[in-house]
Amino acid sequence: MVTPNSPSMPAPTSRERRQIHKLTVHASPWSHSKIPTMMSNSSSWIKNVSEATFEADVLLASDDTPIIVDFWSPRCAPCRTLGPILERLTNERQGKVILAKVNTDENPRLAAYFQIAAIPSVKVIFRRQLVHEFEGLQPEAALREFFNQLVPDERDPELLAAFDAEATSPARAEKLYRAILQRDPEQHEARVGLARTLLRLNKFDDIAEVLEPVGTSGELGTEAQSILAQVNLLKQAAQLPDEQGLRKKLAANPKDAQAHLELGNVLAAKGNTEAALAELLTAAELDYKLASGPAREAMVKVFYAIGPNHPLANEYRSKLARLLY
Questions:
Q1: What CATH homologous superfamily does 14-150 map to?
Q2: CATH of domain 157-214
Q3: Class of CATH domain 238-324
Q4: Which residues are catalytically annotated?
Q5: Tell me: the pLDDT tens digits for 261-317?
Q6: Which residues of 87-115 are buried (b: 16+ CB within 10 A; e: fewer)?
């Protein structure tokens, strides 16, 4: 977790923590100036919320729907991991919950009002009351259970069983997903779930065929593109030198653009996204031909892998554009 650096943000006392579930949230005379946001979300169930919009988007909206408020910062690595999981689980509920994202760097008074001591921090507001909270990065299984407590998942029980088996028993999850698709080949949630499971099992060869009917539109299409990008990164990295060898090469010659490019691809395949993008950008800065070719292509694959609206994708897309144009 990252501790916000706003001097106006007091740490909550133990007594305040014990009482937080009984707290009634009232509107506050926050600034109504327009606050810029970091992320652009295509889903109507995910909102970037500022001090100016909090009353309408959270307090008033909570009269009808539970609002999950994600206090985050683009400089917080756990936040960047938690955010996409919260977004995916929110979209699965099809409007039965709303995710409100609050960038604490841009909205320090909101963070202070809710006594945010560390991020990521998640609060649930329903009927203008704070009914639940947690801090820190949580496993996806725990987050799914958290969502189920708020809004029970009413989808096919066999599909949910396959979801639950992905992390603990991927081989069983694969069998469950394949059984669902044998009955209903148009069950695209099962197709994406099967592709996720095959990726976990390092069974890359069937993934493209499994995902072909899903297409590229909507939340499932976005996740399908992410999985395909991850497969491409893993296959490409398998043909490259190992990380230790590349680091030795760069220690001897820090301006070796090709080595930076290869290290970036290796790190991306390992899921070390931020370091990967930094290496790929360095390669692009050192060699313009790489910038307009392999480095750019590798960065685009990473953007798809983490999601096109991920804060790191936004940040490095801008840096690459400034370099190229």
A1: Glutaredoxin (3.40.30.10)
A2: 1.25.40
A3: mainly alpha
A4: 76, 79
A5: 999 999 999 889 999 999 999 999 999 999 999 999 999 999 989 887 788 888 999
A6: bbbbbbbeebbbbbbbbbbbbbbbbbbbb
